Predict the structure.
Amino acid sequence: MEEILNAITLKSVDVGENDKMITFFTLEKGVITVGAKGVKKDKAKLKFSAEPFCFCTIKVAEKSGRLTLVNADCKKSYFMLSSDISAYLCGCLLSETVTFLNKEQPDGTLFKNLLKCYESFLKGVKKSVTVKFLLDALSNSGYGYDFSACLGCNGEITGNVYLSQDASCFLCSSCAQENDIKFAYSTYLRLNKINETDYFELSDDENDNNCLKLLAFSFKEKFNLTLKSVGMLLQF
């Protein structure tokens, strides 16, 4: 059986001399892994499909539970992002997130948001849209944050902010417990602003690194997922 899918290339792994296993985030099926024969050859027709950040349509064939790439058509390549180390690391971070959360689980909103991030990277806006994508991914998974008030007393948070030990909510200093994580009020405000702002209206800010650190902690606590690209990204 053959299917045509809208896909974004997340990563690829070499198999033998000429083949690759490509991980795609598809609009219709979520994250899938597809065998691609001969794509490592210099003049391979489908070589582009194995390059990271490629938006394409793919035709795949299934046999005995395995998917094989039959054909592909490039809609837009964002491979040029690989030449910008911070944009590349942001892209890798998003790929890590999607690969974990959307294995065979389609999510049309995150699919479109991933493309919005790539477009923003091209314009030089990187970390802020990455933070927004992570916030949206948490929300789509049922773990979105409420920035309207302290979850403990329902009062406005105006001073020191605490993230609960299980990374489930924000608390004021009066409601925080001993093991809750204190962080800067400016980071809380920045997270809230990013959360409320459209992707294409964002610009990067010096506080975005702190936002990334906090979200990396959240993903670790909620999903036991270590976002490996964060550590490298914080250096740029």
The chain has a mean pLDDT of 96.
